[in-house]
């Protein structure tokens, strides 16, 4: 059996011998002509408005492994590799090596079972880097061990992934109890489970917290998987879930130099309706400015989510030691810490962020190198 072509009413129908078939609208075929992409950069160079929306080919034929389509206005025919066009048939999403299936976790995971990776293995590149990147994306949380006792050691790992995300707290930030703090993290207070910088237009993706010292009494770390909380809320109270996925909360951070505000829903869904992001920070929520008639339902949903983040069913606790670095998806996994007593010892974390897009890009490039 050979590959066949039929001029259908919605476009060219291609049927492959293995039973796969695809409908290729003519405007799509014209727009996707490989010669319409820049030979060096790979960017689309074809001017879409130069052809009519109802363009139709004069002729289409298969020759060997290629499909040739002749157009009324073009100098030569478009040439498509049949295997390539099959992989890209309309409705088929492009394969993505960065699409790691998440493992949703609850308190049963336990602090001791958070995946741990050795920093020297990650820093040595493939395959340690790729394995760690995938694991961190899968669980939203890993711990790197054996980091050098320098403030650059964490950044060195972060830079293996991509560009650091600079914020109003700097390219990196020092988490320690400081005089005149502009952020609760810079006190010795407990921090309830939260995501960072919810007041930003794009809250940072992955967060790196390298522990340089944790000698004070207290100061344990806490985490929960925000996707687990949100998915359980959907089961338990779909009205509350829908409110948190649709009503935007005003968030604000301001100090002497800045006044950074943005509105975000607590829960963000992807195109398939799965929870893709959590934005939750009680300390950065600004004055709630909803319409009076929306308030009670909103507060009911928001408090329910807040209570769930504090439910023992979700949280895990661990104590970071000097030389360890926790790395987590700040837009999925909530983090917090227990209060500490600075008079009993020094506690110092060094932090930075790398956005999700950088993470995914590195995963794709590493997969390219390993033929994935
Ligand atoms: C932070 C933070 C946690 C800690 O800096 O945003 O949450 O363990 N720190 O100090
Ligand atoms: Zn934080």
Keywords:
2 domains, binds zinc ion, 24% helix, alpha+beta, NE0471 N-terminal domain-like, 9 helices, 22 strands, binds N-oxalylglycine, four-stranded antiparallel β-sheet, Double-stranded beta-helix, 372 residues
Q: How would a textbook summarize the main sheet?
A: 6 strands, mixed
Alpha-beta classification: alpha+beta
- Specify the CATH homologous superfamily of the largest domain: Clavaminate synthase-like
Q: In terms of per-residue confidence, which ranges show pLDDT below 50 for 5 or more consecutive residues?
A: none
- Strand-residue fraction? 25-35%
Q: Please give the oligomerization state of what you see.
A: single chain
Draw up the topology in text.
Blueprint: E1 4-7, E2 12-15, E3 21-24, H1 26-32, E4 59-63, E5 66-70, E6 78-81, H2 82-87, E7 116-118, H3 119-123, H4 128-139, E8 141-145, H5 153-161, E9 173-175, E10 191-194, E11 206-214, E12 217-218, E13 221-225, H6 226-236, H7 238-246, E14 249-254, E15 259-264, E16 267-269, E17 275-278, H8 292-309, E18 316-318, E19 325-329, E20 333-337, E21 340-341, E22 347-354, H9 356-369
Parallel strand pairs: 7-8
Antiparallel strand pairs: 1-2, 2-3, 4-5, 5-6, 8-19, 9-22, 10-20, 11-19, 11-22, 12-21, 13-18, 13-20, 14-15, 16-17
Structure characterization notes:
- The protein is α+β, with helices and mostly antiparallel strands and 372 residues long.
- It folds into 2 domains: 84 residues, NE0471 N-terminal domain-like (2-Layer Sandwich); 264 residues, Double-stranded beta-helix (4-Layer Sandwich).
- Helices cover 24% and strands 27% of the residues.
- α6 packs across α7, α6 packs across α8 and α7 packs across α8.
- The longest helix is centred in the C-terminal third of the chain and has 18 residues.
- The structure holds N-oxalylglycine (OGA) and zinc ion.
- The site of N-oxalylglycine has 9 residues, from β20 and β22.
């Amino acid at each position: 059996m050979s590959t066949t072509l039929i001029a259908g009413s919605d476009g060219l129908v291609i049927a492959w011998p293995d039973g796969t078939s695809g409908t290729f609208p003519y405007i799509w075929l014209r727009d996707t002509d490989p010669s319409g992409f820049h030979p060096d950069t790979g960017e689309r160079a074809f001017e879409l408005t130069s052809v009519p929306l109802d363009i139709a080919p004069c002729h289409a034929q298969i020759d060997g492994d290629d499909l040739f389509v002749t157009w009324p206005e073009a100098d030569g025919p478009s040439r498509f590799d049949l295997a390539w066009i099959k992989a890209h048939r309309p409705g088929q999403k492009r394969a993505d090596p960065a699409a790691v299936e998440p493992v949703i976790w609850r308190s049963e995971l336990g602090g001791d079972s958070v995946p741990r990776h050795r920093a020297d293995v990650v820093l040595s590149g493939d395959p340690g880097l790729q394995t760690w990147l995938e694991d961190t994306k899968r669980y939203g949380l890993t711990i790197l061990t054996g980091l050098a006792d320098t403030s650059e050691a964490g950044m060195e790992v972060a830079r293996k992934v991509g560009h650091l995300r600079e914020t109003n707290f700097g390219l990196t930030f020092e988490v320690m109890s400081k005089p005149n703090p502009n952020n609760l993290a810079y006190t010795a207070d407990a921090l309830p489970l939260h995501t960072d910088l919810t007041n930003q237009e794009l809250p940072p993706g992955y967060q790196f917290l390298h522990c340089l010292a944790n000698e004070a009494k207290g100061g344990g770390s806490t985490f929960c998987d925000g996707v687990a909380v949100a998915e359980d809320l959907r089961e338990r109270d779909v009205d509350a879930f829908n409110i948190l996925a649709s009503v935007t909360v005003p968030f604000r951070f301001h100090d002497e130099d800045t006044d950074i505000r943005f509105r975000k829903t607590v829960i963000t869904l992807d195109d398939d309706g799965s929870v893709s992001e959590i934005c939750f920070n009680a300390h950065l929520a600004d004055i709630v400015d909803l319409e009076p008639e929306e308030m009670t339902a909103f507060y009911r949903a928001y408090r329910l989510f807040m209570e769930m983040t504090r439910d023992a069913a979700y949280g895990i606790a661990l104590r970071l030691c000097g030389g360890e670095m926790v790395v987590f998806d700040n837009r999925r996994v909530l983090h917090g810490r227990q209060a500490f007593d600075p008079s009993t010892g020094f506690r110092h974390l060094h932090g930075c962020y790398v956005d999700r897009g950088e993470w995914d890009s590195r995963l794709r490039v590493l997969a390219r190198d390993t033929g994935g």
